[in-house]
Amino acid sequence: MNIGWAARPCGRSTASDFRRHRVGFIFQFFNLVPTLSAWENVALPKLLDSKSLAKARPRAVELMERVGLGDRINHRPSEMSGGQMQRVAIARSLIMDPKIVLADEPTGNLDSQTGADVLALLSDVAHEGADRLVLMVTHDRGAADVCDRVVTVRDGRVFGGTDR
Questions:
Q1: Closest C-alpha among 113, 95, 90 to residue 28
Q2: Nearest to 87 by CA among 131, 41, 130
Q3: Among 36-45, 85-94, 154-163, which stretch is predicted with the lowest mean pLDDT?
């Protein structure tokens, strides 16, 4: 996979641009802005990239539909379940079409069925093209079991790393 990153020192601006354009983040506790609607939360990275809300809306709504929340685009986080907020976070992580998606305990706050739905969605994201990597950090063995490759870190030592 070519992610366009050179192994050389870079300034803060370059590293920030890389993160903003090449890496999508899915946080365990969602990190949604409570005063924004779901679609506005999804569009937020575009706003930080100097795009207008009006121009970002069609792609944000498209991603909301992709994660199964087309009927919740105008709801605020307080009006959504944990699973719905996690799917908003997943949609937000994809708005910049990143090459890398980092998921921190994406099922940690979800019931088992919603967690399975989120894992299926992340699997779809990971397998939709050869140029995307989804890297998930989890303590949940069941979540790790659905991954193509598992690397275990225990007591500071790295184990595994073989493809499945």
A1: 90
A2: 41
A3: 154-163
Cβ pair 154, 146 in contact under 8 A: no
Over residues 96-124, the mean pLDDT reads: 90
The number of CA neighbours under 13 Å toward the Cβ of 104 is 9
Chain center to CA of 77: 17
Percentage of the chain modeled with pLDDT above 90:
52
- pLDDT surpasses 50 at 139: yes
Contact in structure between 43 and 53 (CB atoms under 8 Å): yes
Q: Map 8-31 to HEC letters.
A: CCCCHHHHHHHHHHHEEEECCCCC
Amino acid at 126: A
First to last CA, the chain: 18
Distance between CA atoms of residues 145 and 158, nearest Å: 17
Q: What is the pTM of this model?
A: 0.84
Output the CA angle 74-82-85, nearest 5 degrees: 35
Are 95 and 20 in contact by the 8 Å Cβ rule? The answer is no
